[in-house]
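Repro case for the chain-ordering regression, as requested:
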Amino acid sequence: MIPTATLGRLVTYLRVVAELETEGVLTTSSEAIAGRAHATAFQVRKDLAYCGRLGTRGSGYQVAPLARELRRALGLTRVWHVAIMGVGRLGQALADYPNFDRYDFALRAAYDADPAKVGSTVGPLVVEGLDDLAASVARHALDMAFLTVPAAAAQGAADALVAAGIRGILNFAPTVIEVPAHIRVESVDFLAGLTRLTYYVGNPPAE
Amino acid sequence: MIPTATLGRLVTYLRVVAELETEGVLTTSSEAIAGRAHATAFQVRKDLAYCGRLGTRGSGYQVAPLARELRRALGLTRVWHVAIMGVGRLGQALADYPNFDRYDFALRAAYDADPAKVGSTVGPLVVEGLDDLAASVARHALDMAFLTVPAAAAQGAADALVAAGIRGILNFAPTVIEVPAHIRVESVDFLAGLTRLTYYVGNPPAE
Ligand SMILES: NC(=O)c1ccc[n+]([C@@H]2O[C@H](COP(=O)([O-])OP(=O)(O)OC[C@H]3O[C@@H](n4cnc5c(N)ncnc54)[C@H](O)[C@@H]3O)[C@@H](O)[C@H]2O)c1
Ligand SMILES: NC(=O)c1ccc[n+]([C@@H]2O[C@H](COP(=O)([O-])OP(=O)(O)OC[C@H]3O[C@@H](n4cnc5c(N)ncnc54)[C@H](O)[C@@H]3O)[C@@H](O)[C@H]2O)c1
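-- result from build under test --
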């Protein structure tokens, strides 16, 4: 298992290397990756060692093989099927979000507890109710779900997803949800970015 | 200046310590903080040294003074005024987001380029147009803005905010925006959380 802190950094390096790939860059260095990833070149070299022997001392890394190696180490070697649980404002904004396919994520289903929303279309999906959730999760071969319901409904909606066979939840609701040990929850927290931004706005670099 | 990587971790420690505060916990340790922050106790002690001499060896940290000290070190010592630029689905979801006041952020204004939205109410705000943006930014004493417009409109909307006197932008749009050196941009990227989630779902811990 990759330690959590290292995993967070490897995910950032993959975003950086994927950006270099779309920019047509062929080779890069730990210094160049560190600059875009807000890390040190030493940390980059140490972390990339988790993915096997990459790059040669003195001549850097080939971008395309490095991206492939990072995707393999992070388990992004197949298309992952994702659902939206709660098709309100945020759920609808996510249904339209461009670029999922660039990362091999496929939005496959959308669910809402409001009968008035069931049957409507959002992005590429038709909204389903919660009646036969387990059968629907199996039919769409779902792996994970975005939890985009109000905070008060979050635990109940998470329980329904877990009972239906979902193995991972990306929680957008501002509340902590409890799940069994074999289910994974990651929370999305834009307040962390806002707090970092505040620090920089309050401490502008000397001109 | 606090190095970027350290800043990211201090922001996480503040969230952890603030959670302990709302749970009524009076004292904590670097081990307890490290557990919730996915860091090592050594890293926590090293990072907290940036905020001055805190805690005593062997008996841990007092939670309330530690939270105060972290807020001071991060510049969260006053209320920061934030605007929403682009009042679509995500902008509206943000206007309703609970807890801003717990972190001393005040939503003060909302702007949209669509004349049909100007004058409508969203959360606590009345939507304004872009005509007198500089005058409005001054009137609301705005510091920062959420950029929640479509990717194609993001650079133009950012330019308008910078020209109007905004000093920090939290960018939700999936595109890189260019700003002058004295303006700070932080991007919100839920794909990093989704990628971490994928790794754990693909590598479940042994039972
Ligand atoms: N992390 C972020 O970036 C961020 C930003 C804004 C809002 N939020 C949070 O996202 C969540 C959604 O916000 P919103 O503005 O879209 O809310 P919303 O009220 O517009 O939508 C919520 C939807 O969830 C549905 N719902 C309620 N209970 C349900 C259940 N048990 N099962 C399935 N569906 C259910 C509702 O019918 C509704 O369609 C909120 O918790 C909000 O605080 C997160
Ligand atoms: N980071 C995340 O968590 C996340 C999640 C979902 C969507 N998004 C992104 O957020 C953005 C908004 O998504 P949405 O679903 O709310 O879009 P939307 O189309 O519902 O809303 C966009 C709003 O921006 C306004 N607008 C367009 N050009 C403008 C300009 N130049 N100045 C001011 N306002 C302008 C439009 O009138 C509209 O009201 C998109 O870029 C989307 O990809 C981010």
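Ordering looks correct now. The CA atoms of residues 89 and 148 of chain A lie 9 Å apart.
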